[in-house]
Design goal:
Layout (H helix, E strand, L loop, with lengths): L2 H20 L11 H29 L10 H29 L9 H30 L2 H33 L2 H24 L1 H4 L3 H24 L7 H20 L1
Length: about 260
């Protein structure tokens, strides 16, 4: 394969796997029971926290070594800004709904909205990472480096499969619409090829801000997990099925991240 074909294959693969994972929602013909919903919410929580650590925070710390003993700053500040971003977005939406309805009796951003926003933000630096890898390959002009970038894209793409399912299933359960769960899952992934293309052309510039972007996305994901997913994963009956879902999701994403680099 020539260099352009390898690049297109890598960029396409990461989006395809997110879409494929989102399509899992069509395998469920009936409404999900309370226990199964708790299991999925716990699974999504564990998966997102593991992704925040291994896909976002650890790379952010590794790329911040130039800060010396203050290498924690991009990660720490980014996490806080990611959480604050969701709070500000929620307040802005609340303000406009108040003006329209003349009331404050509403929920600004639904759980599905916050989950979609967090996963989409998480996909932005992943797409940029793929773009940076291919951008560096073009700069070096070494054909073998393109295969290294392709392997990175394949690794991220495989991780995107459970992430797509972890987004579409909770959305389907809340909205009672398989189509909406699938489409929002696909929409969250479409930013990756877009950001990959941007990363290719801006590889030399974006490398300096990647630690901040990675940590920002991690903060948004952690905020959603703590505020929306984990509380709803806890059943009133006292069953710990949601907790086991969390453990399974965390372990699965940890294995994928570590095994695929």
């Amino acid at each position: 394969m020539n260099d352009i074909t390898i690049t297109l294959l890598g960029i396409t693969f990461i989006f395809f796997m997110t879409s494929l994972g989102s399509a899992i929602v069509f395998l469920f013909k009936k409404n999900i029971s309370e226990k199964i919903n708790s299991l999925f919410l716990g699974f999504s929580s564990g998966l997102m926290i593991a992704a925040s650590i291994w896909s976002l925070l650890l790379p952010a710390l590794e790329q911040s070594t130039g800060y010396g003993s203050l290498s924690f700053i991009p990660a720490a500040v980014g996490i806080i800004l990611g959480g604050l971003f969701l709070v500000v977005i929620d307040k802005i939406i609340a303000f406009f709904i108040n003006r329209k309805n003349k009331t404050s009796d509403f929920k600004a951003l639904s759980r599905s909205g916050k989950l979609f926003l967090a996963v989409t933000l998480h996909n932005i630096p992943e797409g940029l990472a793929v773009g940076l890898a291919f951008g560096n390959a073009f700069l070096l002009g070494d054909h073998s480096v393109f295969y290294s970038a392709l392997w990175l894209a394949i690794g991220i793409g495989i991780q995107n499969f459970p992430e797509g399912a972890a987004l579409s299933l909770p959305i389907k359960e809340e909205t009672k619409s398989k189509k909406k769960g699938f489409l929002l899952g696909v929409a969250s992934g479409i930013v990756e090829p877009i950001m990959s293309v941007i990363g290719i052309f801006l590889s030399s510039i974006l490398a300096n801000v990647m630690p901040w972007l990675l940590a920002f996305s991690a903060g948004a994901m952690l905020f959603v997990v703590a505020e929306e997913l984990l509380p709803d994963a806890r059943l009133k009956s006292g069953s710990n099925i949601g907790t086991w879902g969390f453990v399974m999701g965390f372990v699965l994403m940890m294995i994928l991240d570590v095994a695929l680099g």
